[in-house]
Amino acid sequence: MRKPGKLGAIAGLLSLGVALTACGTSGNAGESKGGNGLNPPKLEAMKQLGAGEGQVNVLAWPGYAENGSNDPKINWVGPFEKETGCQVNVKTFGTSDEAVNLLKSGQYDVVSASGDASLRLIASGDVEPINTKLVPNYADIQPFLKNRAWNSVKGTSYGIPHGWGANMLTYRTDKVKPAPDSWDVMFGENSPYKGKIEGYDSPIHIADAALYLKAHKPELGIKNPYALDDKQFNAAVDLLKKQRPNVVEYWSDYLKEVQSFSSGNAHVGTAWQVMVNTAKKNGAPIADVLPKEGATGWSDTWMLSSKSKHKNCSYKWMNYITGPQVQAQVADYFGEAPANAKACDVAEDKTVCDTYHAKDADFANKIQYWTTPIEQCLDGRTDVKCKDYSDWTKAWTEIKG
Prior knowledge:
Mean pLDDT: 88
Radius of gyration: 20 Å
Helix content: 25-40%
CATH topology of the domain at 166-296: D-Maltodextrin-Binding Protein, domain 2
CATH architecture of the domain at 166-296: 3-Layer(aba) Sandwich
C-alpha cells in the first residue's frame, strides 16, 4: 500500500524564533505576487553548477523520496544515484514543524516544504534563493505554481514546485443524499450528519471554517482564510466550537480516516484525493467533490538549505525529482497532482492526471493553499493586525477541548 504522505501535516507551534512580520498575499492560484513584503536575509543563489559532492541529505514527506526500502518496485532514488554519483540519504518527517526544526540543524541539504513551512524557512534565512536556470525541468512546471506567496519573494524563487492537491469534501454516497456541493454538510447549523463528521486535526483547519464563512457571512469581509483579524478569527473559532459536538473524530493519520469512512463511522469530512481512491479500492461507497465555496489545499516546494554542504548534488536532485518521469511515479504513488506538466504524457497510469486535476488551472484556482498565518495580514490590509499561527494553535486546543 502507498505510504501516507502528510501524516499529521501542519500540526504544531510557530514558536521557532522566526519573526514573520511581513509576507505577501497567498491568494488563489491565479495570483503570482510572491512574498511581497517579506524581507529575508540577503543570500545569493548559485551562479553555476560544479562537480557533485558525492551525496545529498534529503528531508522529505514519506512517499517523496522512495529508495525501494518500502517497496522494491518503488525506487526512483536508485536511478538518480547511478546517474549522478550523488548518494541520497533520506530522512522523512511527519509534520511541517518537524521539517523546519530538522532543517535548522544544518544536517540536511534539501527539504520538500509545504506552504506553512516555506515562509518560515525563507524568513529565517534557513533556505536560500534558487537559480531556476540551473534547474532545466523548471521550464515545464505548471505556471500556476510558480512565483507564489509561499515559494518566492519579490520575484525571487526560493524553490522548485513539486506537487499539489486540494482538501476535498468527502462523503458516503449511501448515507449523504443528495450529493453535496457545499461545505454546509460539515459547517451548516442544521447539518443532518451530526456525530458523523470528520475534521482535520490541525490548527490550520481553522482556515476551512474561515473559507466557509467567507462565502456564507460576507459581512465579515474575509478575503483570505489565512488572514483573519480578531472579529473574523473569533467567528471561525466559534463556528468550529459549535461544530465540535458533531465531530466523530479529528484525523491526522489518513489510514484511520479511510477506515472511518469504510466502516461507516463517518459520513462526511475533509480528505485528500488519495484517501478517497484508497477507500474506493477497499469497496467503500464514497465520493468527493470540490464544493462551490472552494477548498484549502497544499503545494509543496523543494528548497535548498543555506547551510548545505552539497549544493551541486542538491541542484541535481531538485532537477531530477521534478522531471516528468519521476514526477509521474511520485504522483501515482503518493497521490497528488504533479507539478511538471509533461508528467501527464509519460505516466504509466494515463488517468492519474485527470484524477488529480493536474492540468486544470481552473480547479487549482479554487484552492486556497496552506500558508502560515502571520500578524501582518496576508490579504494586504495594513490598518489591522491579523492572528498569527501561535494564536491559531491556542484556539485549536480550545476547540478540541
